[in-house]
Amino acid sequence: MPVTFQSKAYENITMVSKDAAKLLDMMGHSGTVPSALAAGDIPGALERLKTALAAAEAKGEAEPEPEENDEQDDTSGRKKDTVGIALRAWPLVQMLEASLAAETAVMWE
Asked: Which residues are bridge partners to 3 per DSSP?
């Protein structure tokens, strides 16, 4: 089931629940859906997220996870494009930064 992040300062962001849960955990949130971050809680959550992403990148965990027995695209013989958590987090980081500047909450459902 998808999770949609909303803020008055940014466009809505929808992502699969697995990725959303991982990012919420990185922000130090319980992962409860639906929920929200008050404007005053955004600086800490943003800092925790950036720190966790930097740590994951340093460990090589921010890269895409290879899928089992799925090294090549069946139709073209090329490797499938995959996206790591660092790239998936980018729109959420942008939303948090915009919400921080606008002093508005971020909600998700």
From this structure: 15
Can you state the percent helix, strand and coil of the chain, rounding each to 5?
Answer: 45, 15, 40
The CA distance from 44 to 46, in Å, is 5
Per-residue pLDDT 10s for the chain (109 aa) are: 899 999 999 999 999 999 999 999 999 999 899 999 999 999 999 999 999 999 988 887 766 655 555 454 455 555 555 788 899 999 999 999 999 999 999 999 9
CA-CA-CA-CA torsion for 37, 86, 88, 96, nearest 10 degrees? 30
Cis preceding-peptide flag for 34 (omega within 30 of 0):
yes
The single residue listed with the structure tokens 């459902």 is 109
The one-character DSSP state at 41 is G
Rounded Cα–Cα distance for residues 75 and 93 (Å):
35
| Beta carbons of 96 and 24 less than 8 angstroms apart | no
